[in-house]
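Quick illustration for those who missed Monday's session on complexes.
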Amino acid sequence: MIITIASFKGGVGKTTSAIHLAAFLQSQGETLLIDADPNRSATGWAQRGDLPFEVIDEWRSPRRMRNFDHVVIDTQARPVQRDLELLTDGCDLLILPTTPDVLALDALVLTLECLQAIGANRYRILLNIIPPKPSREGETVKQMLKAAELPVFETGVRRLAAFQKAARAGGLVYAIKEARAAEGWQDYVQVGQEMLAGA
Ligand code: ADP
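Prediction with adenosine-5'-diphosphate bound:
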């Protein structure tokens, strides 16, 4: 499958999600991550360490894509409507990560308005970097999105320092030696399973 990760705001974990969902898909079949974000964060991540899948930039992607079972595309933040149209057209699922806070949700609303304007329906919201209990922010925002009948993953990704360490090391969260790192990986495995189940 081809999945695209997009967001109207930086810092919502777009690249971290692209990297970890590509790692999940790699456990199912050969996976390619296309780094179409001009910041080239995914490319930098791959260069710092050792990822179990290939990362290339969008200029080299058209021919390479044919050889893979799954493709994940990390895109530039703040796409304009025309970009979103092309992005949704070219993939099986558009994933919109957002953090459960007011500023990110404002940006999400803009994205959703654009998607509705172009009649897109293959997209799902991923609640990301969810603060730990006693905060109820993650759950509250999920229920709010559901009440608005918006497509949202049941599983959200929790906020863990291990994700920042993984980015620094150029690896995956499961390789970080920290008690809760496995829980972070488990979140992405569950998101990946939901993704495949809905495909
Ligand atoms: P974006 O691509 O949306 O700008 P990044 O993936 O670069 O977002 O993440 C932004 C920052 O948040 C980085 O410092 C990253 O390490 C951190 N981050 C991402 N996901 C998590 C998480 N689940 N828990 C804690 N920090 C995270």
